[in-house]
Design brief:
mainly alpha; single chain
Length: 135
C-alpha cells in the first residue's frame, strides 16, 4: 500500500512536470505530438529518480539495470501515450489539452504495473516470474 502511494506521489510529480512542459509548448504553438515528446524526456528523468530513490526505495536492482529497464517501461508508456494522443487529437481536434490529459493518464497506469513488477522488482521476484513463464 505504501509503495503504491509513493508511486502515485512520484508519478504525480512527473506527470505534473510532463503536463507543464507539454502544455507550455502547446500554448506556445508547438504541435501536440512534438510538445508531448519534449515533455516526455524531462518527465522521464524526474520519474526515474523519484521511483529509484523514493517509490521503490530499498529495491535491490542495480541502478544501471533499473535505469535500462525503466527506459523500456517509459518507452512503452510513451508509445501508449503518443498513440492515444494521436488518435484522440484526430477524434477531437478542438480539444488537444484534454486529449493530452487523457493519453497521459492512460500511459501512467501501464507504467505503474510494469515498474512495480519488472523495472524495480526484487531480483528473486523477477527470476520467479521468468521460471513461471517457462513452465
Amino acid at each position: 500500500m505504501l509503495g503504491a502511494l509513493r508511486f502515485m506521489l512520484t508519478g504525480g510529480a512527473a506527470t505534473l512536470v510532463h503536463m507543464g512542459v507539454a502544455l507550455g509548448l502547446l500554448t506556445g504553438g508547438t504541435a501536440p505530438l512534438a510538445s508531448n515528446g519534449a515533455a516526455f524526456v524531462v518527465a522521464f528523468l524526474v520519474s526515474f529518480w523519484g521511483h529509484h530513490r523514493f517509490s521503490f526505495a530499498g529495491h535491490t536492482t542495480a541502478p544501471r539495470q533499473a535505469f535500462l529497464r525503466f527506459m523500456i517501461v517509459a518507452g512503452i508508456g510513451f508509445a501508449i501515450n503518443e498513440t492515444a494522443l494521436f488518435w484522440l487529437v484526430q477524434q477531437m481536434p478542438a480539444y488537444p489539452a484534454q486529449a493530452l490529459v487523457a493519453s497521459t493518464t492512460l500511459a501512467a497506469v501501464g507504467t505503474f504495473v510494469l515498474s512495480r513488477h519488472w523495472a524495480f522488482a526484487h531480483p528473486a521476484a523477477t527470476a520467479h516470474a521468468a521460471r513461471q513463464a517457462r513452465s
